[in-house]
Design a protein that fits this description.
homodimer, DNA-binding, 11 helices
Amino acid sequence: MNVVNESPRRKELTRLAAQLFVQEGFDRTTVRMLAQEMGIKSGSLFHHFRDKQEILAAVIEEGTQNALSIARQALESCEDSAEARLHAMARAHLETLLTDRNAHVVALYEWRRLDAESRSHLSHLRDAYEALWERVIDEALEAGLIRGDRFLVSRFVMGALNWTVRWYDPEGPRKPEDLAHELIAMIAPSTHAAQARSTKV
Amino acid sequence: MNVVNESPRRKELTRLAAQLFVQEGFDRTTVRMLAQEMGIKSGSLFHHFRDKQEILAAVIEEGTQNALSIARQALESCEDSAEARLHAMARAHLETLLTDRNAHVVALYEWRRLDAESRSHLSHLRDAYEALWERVIDEALEAGLIRGDRFLVSRFVMGALNWTVRWYDPEGPRKPEDLAHELIAMIAPSTHAAQARSTKV
DNA sequence: GGTTTACACTAGCGCTTGCTTGGTTGATCT
DNA sequence: AGATCAACCAAGCAAGCGCTAGTGTAAACC
């Protein structure tokens, strides 16, 4: 019978599903396409997942969990200044786009295809991630690193970062490190990062 | 027979379609749902549009055309300083989200469901709009209003602005004017806008 | 006053969809 | 050696899909 466990097989299938969801979109991806990509028949798919919705939820959960743990780890292992923490968060965020790009694209584009219960479960995860951001931005505001409305600044920054999935090319010359620097230089021009940049160019 | 004209009836139907596409997503919206919303039977729909794809293209074209003409008008009727032009663009962008929100959400989320020919036609329109942005940002860079990499700054700004469709509440206290001010204050802290803000708060 | 045109209807074809059912296989455990 | 179990398959159902064909009708035009 079908299970809700976390078998390694299921994780691999989730990874493949994420790729197809990005290529085709959730609604256009049929269970037959998913099965073929996985090397099994469409019926066998429902041994691993209750229904198609559950595959989508699994993809998004996987990606968000990873982003959350990477961000937490980055915050723990960086210097304690507001600037260092802001930079660590931006860099962590961009690095997950390298390693988990598919899952994040799905989370951004197909969120609304989740049913009500998956959505409420996953929105807690997402809230936890965004809370990390708001806290780091609060610290930056208090330190006078940046200024402006707390709510608006965090939304603008999240927007700029999330939008990167649209244009960022991991094969290109720009590394996540560079993007993080440039973003912080843009919103906090009085930092070391900004000065290093503006004299270099 | 079905036509490709621009009858007022077709425009009204396009507006209704945009709303449904936002609520349900393009793939989940059936021609029967569209017809019901329009008060006709599903077969009658194909008198106005060749196929379902064409409805999507019509929605996106309408929204992009409006954004483009509003932006051009804003640039023509504003002061000639780099700061004024940047502000005019940001404000125009946010105001189209008020008046044409549905169409823009569709353009952002359902772009990939366009077939090849619609996509190539519409991407010219979108490029024209983004070119306006790049030019204004170039001017701001030259004027020393902001600093940083031309490519990255424009992507970050577009990201922050486009992301607003996710959280912006037109009924709330913040007006497009305010958002535009705040965004510019964030990326160009030495402007009048920034000083007015930071002393006021 | 006859023809055309715009817009709508009814009915349904051919196909695809997500998912179910009942059964087979090979490895693991006792 | 027998039992258990995860993993898979073949076959197909019921529902829904985009779209077409053929027809009706009221207004507009010549």
